[in-house]
Amino acid sequence: MRWLAALLLTGAAGLTGPAAYAGEDVECRDATSVTETYTTDRGSRAFDELDLDDAHAWLRRRDEALGRGVVVAVVDSGVGPVPGLDVVERPAVVPGLELRAYHGSAVAGLVHGVAPDAQVLDLQVYDDPTGQTGTPILTANVVRALDVVLARVRAGLAVRVVNISLNVEPDPALQERIDALWEAGVVTVAPTGNRPSEETESFIVPDAFDDFEPGENAVAVVHPAAYEHVLAVNASMAGTDGEDPHTYVLENSATDLAAPTAGGVSATLGGGTCLLTPPATSWAAAEVSGVLALLFSHFPDDTPDQAVARLLLTADGRPDVPNRLLGAGEVQPYDALTRPLALSADGAAEQTASVPDRGRHHAPVPQPDVLAGVRDDAVWWGLLGGGAVVLALVLRPLLSRRPREHR
Predict the structure, then answer these.
(1) Which one of 99, 222, 272, 312 counts the least CB within 10 Å of its CB?
(2) DSSP-assigned states of every residue in 13-51
(3) According to the model, what pLDDT value does residue 232 have?
(4) What DSSP state is assigned to residue 3?
(5) Up-side HSE of residue 383: CA atoms within 13 Å toward CB?
(6) For residue 288, which of 247, 256, 252, 245 has the smallest C-alpha distance?
(7) Stretch 249-257: mean pLDDT, rounded?
(8) What span, in angstroms and rounded, lies between the C-alpha atoms of 280 and 76?
């Protein structure tokens, strides 16, 4: 894990996101009081699955910062003091909220781990997902947060990504804001839904989805993932030793991409590090938001269509044959950054090229045949010469008879 040496080491090149969890198997949901940051030999398995070290190394070789110039708006439970994270602003979207839920810090920590130099716009919209002792997750408050994002974009803040790792009730006003953000150059990323459990408080879905049934499709009950102009992300099972994905996530026809989250490392509410053990779509959406920040930093002139197309066309599946669990496949950050793509403004691919070599085995790329023209000429001259010989053999008896007949 080459990237570990650069992570969470004060006095080094800089803080570049959570690298190891605090203590022994400290779950992020149980680590609100953890303030220590540990650097151990066990790093983020999810980041390893993403091959983030390749993407980061490629950008650094070009003297490019990892997400600099891009702001990611995190619409969630609020962001705690994530080590090294630059929070550009914390507008009071909903007055009176307390910072006590871990979810927003975990999301921001993952964004920061993928794109360490990106900034975060912290938009807290709830403090108690159950609603028992505080403000629950409400669509109206998410809409208010997106109004703040639109105002900041129009004022010149470089927000290019909005992460909404939540499930809310559908509302035309929410769709309108998402469409307006897309037109303003901003991609909204949202998860496609976790299987209901006591740990998925931000994903309340009907009891009918408690157990998987063939033909399941959660598109009607998970928002904003179902909306147009939302990049909808599921969690893949990479790193889970072949566990059944239906144990953790829902099938959803809105799924565009997937990302690995099992064994991920993120930030606690108290500023330490913690472990994200089970796969969850909230964390997958956060990771893809970070990848988008890397893309927009490297391709600052990309439209939302073009940025999303880079992710879909370089995923490890089939964008033309998506499925309800993986969409176009698992996101590939290095390939999204490096594969040459000619994209129109609406994201249509005019041509693609082979993936640059990273020292792995690839099918050989056909080389130009510089002797093709010579060989073609030789074939034609050979045919002409052979034809002349055949013709001479056919005509020889006739030519030899004509002099005898004349005599």
Answers:
(1) 99
(2) S---S--S-STTT-BGGG-TT-------S---HHHHHTT
(3) 98
(4) G
(5) 5
(6) 256
(7) 95
(8) 15
Q: What is the pLDDT of residue 382?
A: 60
Could you give phi then psi for residue 234, rounded to 5 degrees? -105, 170
Tokens 């009730």 belong to 169
Mean pLDDT calculated for residue range 287-312: 97
Cα separation values, 205 from 137, 138, 221, 356, Å: 13, 14, 6, 42
105-136 pLDDT, tens digit each: 999 999 999 999 999 999 999 999 888 889 99
Of all helices (H) and strands (E), which one includes residue 373?
Answer: helix 372-406
Q: What are the helix and strand counts (H, E) for the chain?
A: 9, 11
**Residue 221's pLDDT band (boundaries 50, 70, 90)?**
very high
pLDDT score of 16 more than 80: no
Any idea where the domains of the chain sit in the sequence? 2-352, 369-407
Q: Which one is predicted more confidently, 401 or 159?
A: 159
Question: Which tens digit of pLDDT belongs to each residue from 188-204?
Answer: 999 999 998 756 666 67
Burial class (CB in 10 A: 0-12, 13-18, 19+), 52: buried
Cβ atoms of 271 and 82 closer than 8 Å: yes
293, 248, 339: which is closest to 113 by C-alpha? 293
Amino acid letter, residue 385? G
CA 374-380-383 angle, to 5 degrees, is 140
Looking only at Cα atoms, what is the longest distance across the chain? Answer: 128
Task: Out of 3.40.50.1860, 3.40.50.200, 3.90.550.10, 2.40.128.280, select the CATH number for domain 2-352.
Answer: 3.40.50.200
* Cis upstream peptide for 170 (omega within 30°): no
CA-CA-CA-CA torsion sign (170, 315, 320, 244): negative
C-alpha dihedral sign at 91, 94, 96, 98? negative
Pair of tokens at residue 93? 């979207």
Residue 26 half-sphere exposure, CB side, CA atoms within 13 Å? Answer: 26
pLDDT of 401 reads: 42
- CA-wise closest residue to 104 among 28, 43, 170, 193: 28
Among candidates 84, 59, 163, which has minimal Cα distance to 121?
163
Does residue 342 or residue 158 have the better pLDDT? Answer: 158
Instruction: Give the pair of three-digit tokens for residue 323.
Output: 């499925």
Instruction: Name which of 48, 55, 100, 104 is nearest 76 in CA terms.
Output: 104
If you search the block for the tokens 């804001």, which residue do you land on?
Answer: 177
pTM exceeding 0.70: yes
**Mean pLDDT for all residues in the chain:** 82
